[in-house]
Amino acid sequence: MEAKTRFRLAICGGGIGGLTLAAVIHKYYKDDIQVDLYEAKDKFSEIGAGISLWRGPWSIMQLLGLDKALEGIIAGPPEETPRVRFSFRRGDQVDESYTFHEAIMTHGPITMHRTDMLNILVDNLPSNFRTHFNKRLSSYSEDSSGAINLFFSDGSCAEADVLVGADGINSATRKAMYLSLENAAESEDSKHLASFAEARWTGTYAYRTIVDTKLLLEKAPGHRLASTPVIYLGKDKHIVSFPISRGQSLNLIGFVTVAEGEGAEHEGPFVKEVAVDEMIENYNSTWEPEIRQLMSVQCVKRSSRWAIHHVRNLPQYASGRVVLMGDAAHGMTTHLGAGAAQAIEDAFILGRILAHERTNVENIEAALKVYDNVRRPIANAMVERSWNTGLLYEFSVAPGGGSWSGVEPSSAEGLRMIAGGIDDAWSWQSSDLPQDDWLRAEEQLLRHICSQASTDGGAIVTDN
Ligand SMILES: Cc1cc2nc3c(=O)[nH]c(=O)nc-3n(C[C@H](O)[C@H](O)[C@H](O)COP(=O)(O)OP(=O)(O)OC[C@H]3O[C@@H](n4cnc5c(N)ncnc54)[C@H](O)[C@@H]3O)c2cc1C
């Protein structure tokens, strides 16, 4: 007998977050949700760059049965032994620098090419989930029956019972949600809600490129970056490099922060192909010899420039039957390599709540509040932690976000303090597993469902 459809779900955005959500629902549901996935582009695609996963998201990939496929594309096997995962050097000095800190982590990073990861998620999409390309959501409205009307930029419309905005940092879902929340707000205190509609520029550009390791070693035999993940720190600039594609390439990102840029409106596209010279000239003459060598041996063939934006302290991820996840909810700086990890953890909790056999159109709003209650404090805190880590790498704040109180950040004492701050910042990757968060979410969900069954409309009890 065919299962009765509990609700119609629209997922807007087929990036890592939206596709992982589809995988979680497929794994845990009983064929009783109608799923439509709307993607703005003409196919699922990612930019050509690396990505790191950690223990938490990796454990989700294991639960989804995707770990075996991923093992074929990662730079090295996942390990659970304390090991140096990143070396830290001061980069912005002309003379040879030294490694002032080695961050020892028990887990990860598990690094891979983003396109390879996306392809595995796409291959896993079940055939009964309908995918719609060239469908860019422009807005939505909720009608009196509770149904959501989706409006696309090509003039077409669709209807769903639940809308998940997995549409990235420039989320149209978030814009529509927060403009509508402000319009509906009665108190003066809520009249600032529209300010959450847009992501804010952090003032930082990230120049991303992939370097062919073989070519690097031909041109610069024994170069440190061929085998070692390194973060080079400097005033208002830093560089991150780590091997991907089983060590055949390096993911190289050069960060440059513009004075007065934070919070300013960024002019021009978020992502732009740029001449490699624009990246190289930031580091070429004033950085330590191994960086100058890397930049001068024509290993950097092409580069894109990303204006790094973030979405800070969103006061709610869910409104009515609409919910945000991934970068749409908490787009963050890249300094802890945690954005995709957080999107995957959102997908796990949200997907399990939606797939839960007792979630239905009557209790969906409360169910989405459970997701908000469990995920928002964790992900919002990560946005702040990640931003502060970037400021620390660029000597702008002392560990903990405070001032340097007379200590020169690039001095031996300053670097010792930074080393402590780095260990603290990265300790998140061995924190609770998402399965623990799911236990909390399920307990809240069931508590709500039981109280609703006994009172027919009991309010959800939250932990915070
Ligand atoms: C330079 C850089 C380096 C990074 N490195 C790491 C890392 O090492 N580790 C890590 O965990 N994270 C990293 N991140 C962050 C990570 O890329 C993001 O957090 C992650 O991709 C978020 O996934 P998402 O699915 O929420 O959004 P996205 O990946 O942005 O996907 C959104 C999808 O929605 C589609 N879309 C957009 N608008 C609409 C619309 N209106 N209607 C329909 N579809 C729409 C898009 O086409 C896209 O397919 C990095 C980010 C940057 C910028």
UniProtKB/TrEMBL annotation:
All residue ranges annotated as the FAD-binding domain in the record: 10-386
SUPFAM superfamilies: FAD-linked reductases, C-terminal domain, FAD/NAD(P)-binding domain
The UniProt record lists the keyword DNA damage: no
Keyword Flavoprotein: yes
Molecular-function GO terms, alphabetical: FAD binding; oxidoreductase activity
Keywords: FAD, Flavoprotein, Oxidoreductase
Origin: domain of life: Eukaryota
Gene Ontology BP term (one): secondary metabolite biosynthetic process
Gene3D superfamilies from the UniProt entry: FAD/NAD(P)-binding domain
InterPro entries linked to this entry: FAD-bd, FAD/NAD-bd_sf, FAD_monoxygenase
Signal peptide, first to last residue: none
Name the UniProt record assigns to this protein: FAD/NAD-binding domain-containing protein
